[in-house]
Amino acid sequence: MSFFFEVLVAGLLSGVMYALVALGFVLIFKASGVFNFAQGAMVFFAAATFAGLQQEHHLSVWLALPLALVAMVVLGLVIERVVLRPLVNQPQITLFMATIGLAFFIEGMSQMFWGSTPRGLSIGIEDQPFQWVSDRLNINISQFDVFAAFVSGILVVLLALFFQRTRIGRALRAVADDHQAALSVGIPLQYIWAIVWAVAGFVALVAGMLWGARNGVGFSLTFTALKALPVLILGGFESIPGAIVGGLIIGASEKVAEVYLGPHVGGGIEGWFAYVIALAFLLVRPEGLFGEKHIDRV
To answer: Per the structure, how many domains does the chain have?
Structure first.
């Protein structure tokens, strides 16, 4: 039983990190109604920038962090100004295709600046179990996983409060509901989108640092970020609480499946089990646990 709880806790902690990545997608979707396919590339670029500043320019964590943050905020603002703003009021598929192009561009830019060789990333937290928990409960819980889950949870809560309690958050929700109506009451659409893309850049940096420190900085980070897609399908594309719940469900289920079902199906189940859950969930509740049902009258 202790081993089961160890696997479950590890999965839940990973799920919080999935929720953090999913949050970047939720931010853009709430503002523009578009799935930002480039969010995974932004996570990769953020991690590569932070690791490059540390290793190639020999900067400490406390110097590399603000510089990487500036780079991600600037990237978000440039994307909004150069790509998104000219496409205002265009069909959603046009915006989605633009984010696909952005994904390849950002991936290429990252490798041009920092190279394509995978590298490690250190944030000063060791990936080793808490000794007192191991001794007393016979459960190995990683210090890094707890730290990453704590940081992710704090960021998710702060952003949820930002959307619910601030004027900018309310304006963003108005923009998400109807662009034209928001413009008609004086809400500056470009200003709101600029803020959202800047915040999405910040979220990508935190996610990139945590996942890069855990798995290394390489092109595979873009696919790790896309693991947020099943999280969004479960929780809903517009819901921050849904991102949290969906992340916990995906993280726990894939870890338990890898340990208990993996030996019977040949292993590697952790890479695709989340998508099977998402596919099954689409058949039951396509809008997600916290999503709103849309009724089109014809």
So the answer is: 1
How far apart CA 216 and CA 62 sit, in angstroms, is 19
- 51: Cβ contacts below 8 Å, ≥ 6 apart: 114, 119, 120, 121, 212, 217
What is the tens place of the pLDDT at every residue in 19-57?
Answer: 888 888 888 887 777 788 888 899 999 999 999 998 888
Whole-angstrom CA distances from 236 to 107, 179, 227 are: 27, 20, 14
> Higher-confidence residue: 223 or 244?
244
CATH number at residue 21: 1.10.3470
Q: Taking Cα atoms as reference points, which of 216, 195, 212, 197 lies closest to residue 39?
A: 197
C-beta of residue 270 within 8 angstroms of C-beta of residue 215: no
In a domain, 21, yes or no: yes
* 290 within a domain of the structure (yes/no): no
